Amino acid sequence: MNIPPGKRAKHRLNKLHRRLLPFYMKPAILIAFMGVSLMGQLTWITAIAMTGGVDVRWCGVGFAFGIVIGYIQGKWISRLWARDYLRVIQREITFWEAKGATGTTVFVILALGIPILIGLSLRQSHGLLVGLQSHIFGFVGGMNLALYLWVRRLPK
Predict the structure, then answer these.
(1) Under a CB-based contact definition with an 8 Å cutoff, are residues 77 and 24 in contact?
(2) pLDDT at site 148
(3) pLDDT tens for residues 115-144?
């Protein structure tokens, strides 16, 4: 396709490329976030297993639930960015004016806040508290996995 030199820059901004994404959305950084999440989970399970008295299966349940909920959040964020990121960086709209921005923010608050509030109210149930920390590690890992899969499909 022959594009005049003056219109090349504008043409490049009409399509989302990996290089336009912020630093924390680069593939290597998303992989690092997933690795840190997994290392945190493994460290947490090891620490809980060494103390004894708590069933470490709660860690697996919390981690799996966190991955599922985090992956859903990551898919929503990737749809939001795919649709409106170019408009946000061109200052046509603010992030909060993007369709779905408020919903994804509320979802994160509920997905992480409700389990924490439940855990704080059930202080005697150490199994649930152990699972809550794993839920947070899983949420971070699942969200970054969904974002990584989306970013990988973007042109360089």
Answers:
(1) no
(2) 92
(3) 878 777 776 677 677 888 889 999 999 999
